[in-house]
Amino acid sequence: MSCILAVAQRGEAILNLNAAEVASSELNSPWLKQLAEAMHSTMLQKNGVGIAAPQVYVSKRLIIVASRPNPRYPDAPEMDAVVMVNPEILESSATTVLGEEGCLSVPDERGQVARAESIKLRYLTVAGEVVETLFSGFPARIVQHEIDHLNGVLFIQRL
Ligand code: K1U
Ligand code: ZN
């Protein structure tokens, strides 16, 4: 496991910012790889299913999504952690679903949030490859929660 980073908490200004795009010069760089690795270790250590760079005090558009079955979503798929650079939602289903969310930056609160049931997403890998893919259910919820972090929005603002 690489280093565990401090997680910004509700009320800290970094969580309200619109994060900057990762520049093409940063793709495949040692610093981007180290940041992704440290975010992954931090997410695992905090028992999370996702994390966004602003939560570890880096205002850049980088997220990790790692769905797994849990008491709230027993049917959630188990997926290897996916690191997404500059993620963009290309399409959202008109159908929304209510589901419980928590947040590593708001540890004592949970709530029911309406999210698109499925989304079409484009992102870059750390190496700079373009990926377009569909997510639905719990993984789609995590992606939307993490992209909200990139846009300075916490789930408690959607309750
Ligand atoms: O971004 C974060 O703060 C991580 C967050 C991701 C998330 C959880 C639930 C719905 C949407 C996004 C967490 O991992 S909170 C802790 C957690 O593991 C969890 C909470 C509720 C349901 C399942 C897991
Ligand atoms: Zn969160």
Automatic annotation (TrEMBL):
<feature type="binding site">
    <location>
        <position position="103"/>
    </location>
    <ligand>
        <name>Fe cation</name>
    </ligand>
</feature>
<keyword id="KW-0378">Hydrolase</keyword>
<comment type="function">
    <text>Removes the formyl group from the N-terminal Met of newly synthesized proteins. Requires at least a dipeptide for an efficient rate of reaction. N-terminal L-methionine is a prerequisite for activity but the enzyme has broad specificity at other positions.</text>
</comment>
<protein>
    <recommendedName>
        <fullName>Peptide deformylase</fullName>
        <ecNumber>3.5.1.88</ecNumber>
    </recommendedName>
</protein>
<dbReference type="InterPro" id="IPR023635">
    <property type="entry name" value="Peptide_deformylase"/>
</dbReference>
<feature type="binding site">
    <location>
        <position position="149"/>
    </location>
    <ligand>
        <name>Fe cation</name>
    </ligand>
</feature>
<keyword id="KW-0408">Iron</keyword>
<dbReference type="GO" id="GO:0006412">
    <property type="term" value="P:translation"/>
</dbReference>
<dbReference type="Pfam" id="PF01327">
    <property type="entry name" value="Pep_deformylase"/>
</dbReference>
<keyword id="KW-0648">Protein biosynthesis</keyword>
<dbReference type="GO" id="GO:0042586">
    <property type="term" value="F:peptide deformylase activity"/>
</dbReference>
<feature type="binding site">
    <location>
        <position position="145"/>
    </location>
    <ligand>
        <name>Fe cation</name>
    </ligand>
</feature>
<dbReference type="GO" id="GO:0046872">
    <property type="term" value="F:metal ion binding"/>
</dbReference>
<comment type="similarity">
    <text>Belongs to the polypeptide deformylase family.</text>
</comment>
<feature type="active site">
    <location>
        <position position="146"/>
    </location>
</feature>
<dbReference type="InterPro" id="IPR036821">
    <property type="entry name" value="Peptide_deformylase_sf"/>
</dbReference>
<keyword id="KW-0479">Metal-binding</keyword>
